[in-house]
Specification:
The protein is an alpha/beta fold. The strands form 3 sheets. The protein has a 7-stranded mixed β-sheet with strand order 1-2-3-4-5-6-7. A 5-stranded mixed β-sheet has the order 8-9-10-11-12, with no helix packed on it.
Length: 307
């Protein structure tokens, strides 16, 4: 029988540090996310995890990344130091953000080494085909091992977020058995997922989110950090947010003042940039487009170091 075993090395009993070791048939090893712990100081948990990952790093074939927050990618440099030399699968957008996030984190920690990032071997899920690309978002599965494959779905968290759906057979089939004759099982990893409903979009980037395929024999590993919160937002939440932001900006421009928007995190910065662009392109004030009222040469983004 084909067997899959999972070992949770973070994100369970903790909020951060998402990292799941997946074993297939006792000889094939993979990781779903490789995140650091943030503001959680259980040294015993961290030491135990490091011991496991040092043992398996050189045997791990693929690391599947759901998105580019540090509690999902921050361990990648350490994995490489510990011997990982396999591939890293994720979306094109996540890989671009991942490199920036890791470089920034390594500089802050005083251990920046560009060779580590340059040595990472990526496979991009971006809708195209090629040696380092894969046509993704549920359109096809990519074979990993015999009768074990994976596909990718869009998620509603940050730019590039995805979820992973694995397809495998518990029974070992002969090569001549056709696909439709096999009994497939499905294993689905959500990563972080944003709060979104069709009538309650908090971010216009995520209108194309996808839910897991409706399959029998499906197991879902759901990351539920914020699962205990009910968010009673109006069906017009996004437009209300945009309207308020535009109102604040217009008032300050009329008074020849600045608008200072602290955006300390990747998700917050992304939301602000998307909202400002949406206002620029779509919003109207007294019949005029927003961009007609503002001299965009006076708008700038600055990075401040906080002492």
């Amino acid at each position: 029988m084909n067997k899959i075993r999972l070992r949770f090395l973070g994100g369970i009993g903790t909020v951060t540090g998402s990292c799941i070791l997946m074993e297939y048939n006792e000889i094939h090893y993979y990781l779903i996310d490789a995140g650091i712990f943030q503001n959680e100081n259980d040294l015993e948990v961290e030491r135990n995890r490091e011991k496991v990952l040092r043992k398996y790093a050189s045997r791990i074939k693929i690391i599947f990344i759901t998105h580019a927050h540090l509690d999902h990618i921050g361990l990648l440099p350490e994995m490489i130091k510990w011997g990982f030399n396999g591939k890293i699968y994720s979306t094109k957008a996540t890989i671009a953000i991942l490199k920036i996030m890791l470089e920034d984190a390594m500089k802050i920690n005083g251990n920046f080494d560009p060779q580590i990032i340059n040595s990472m071997n990526f496979l991009e899920f971006d809708g195209s085909k090629g040696e380092n690309h894969f046509k993704g978002f549920g359109k096809e599965y990519k074979k990993i091992e015999k009768d074990f494959s994976v596909t990718i779905l869009r998620s509603s968290h940050i730019l590039g977020s995805c979820t992973w759906q694995f397809r495998w057979t518990e029974k070992k089939y002969e090569d001549y058995i056709q696909f439709d004759e096999k009994e497939w099982k499905y294993l689905y990893f959500t990563g972080d997922i944003g709060s979104i409903r069709e009538k309650n979009k908090t971010n216009i980037l995520f209108k194309g989110h996808q839910i897991p395929f409706v399959n029998p024999n499906k197991t879902i590993i759901l990351e539920s950090t914020y699962g205990g919160i009910i968010r009673n937002k109006s069906d017009n939440f996004y437009n209300e947010k945009i309207s308020k932001l535009a109102e604040i900006i217009i008032k300050n421009i009329e008074k020849n003042k600045f608008v200072l928007i602290p955006a300390f995190a990747l998700d917050r910065a992304q939301q602000i940039l998307v909202d400002l662009n949406y206002i620029k392109l779509k919003y109207t004030v007294e019949g005029k487009r927003f961009h007609e009222l503002i001299n965009y040469d006076n708008i700038c983004c600055k990075q401040y170091k906080i002492p």
